[in-house]
Design a protein that fits this description.
181 residues, alpha/beta, Maf protein, seven-stranded mixed sheet, 7 strands, 38% helix
Length: 181
């Protein structure tokens, strides 16, 4: 048995591995899991972890990263994938511009299951929706600009994204928990 991060995204896995190294050994596990849709990211994560246990043994880490727009009272949240598919980067940017509110919050929540109860670890970054930058394969990284930065995430070098990102904040909490258990 080992610790597995369930994702098909190599870039996400590289970020996780980079933050854990060398203290925690983790492997990427690609399992095509049914992902329920809900406004509560914890419910989505819990469902993924329970499904993963049906397919593989071990300790699992799964993530849900959400984007909350002030202009839409917190939508799309965990439903960002569908907003992104429907509107694209320019559409979301234009929407916030027309609404006169560009503030946003990016939140990563990791769920961990060692076979018993599920633990959650979250990190967030406050920022705003900005004019789309380059496509780095991370979807809405192209339009999210962290507070205090003059660049969207996709225009930052990998190391800078990891340093300012919500994923790192959540993973540092998990790392502290995991090394103590």
């Amino acid at each position: 048995m080992g610790l597995y991060f369930i994702t098909g995204n190599k870039n996400k896995f590289l970020q996780v591995k980079n933050i854990f190294s060398p203290e925690i050994k983790i492997e990427q596990l690609e399992i095509d899991l049914i992902e329920i849709q809900d406004l509560d990211a914890k419910k989505i994560i819990e469902h993924k972890l329970l499904e993963a246990q049906k397919h593989h043994s071990g300790e699992f880490l799964v993530e849900d990263t959400s984007l909350y727009l002030d202009a839409l009272n917190g939508l799309p949240g965990p439903l960002i994938k569908w907003f992104w598919k429907s509107l694209g980067p320019s559409g979301i940017y234009d929407l916030t511009k027309k609404m006169g509110e560009s503030k946003a919050k990016a939140v990563s929540i990791f769920g961990y299951s060692g076979g018993k109860e599920i633990q959650f670890f979250s990190g967030e970054v406050i920022g705003e929706i900005a004019k789309p930058g380059k496509d780095d394969g991370f979807g809405w990284n192209r339009i999210f600009q962290p507070k205090g930065s003059n660049k969207v995430l996709s225009d930052m070098p990998f190391e800078e994204i990891v340093a300012v990102g919500m994923r790192k904040k959540a993973l540092e909490k998990f790392k502290e928990y995991y090394l103590k258990k």
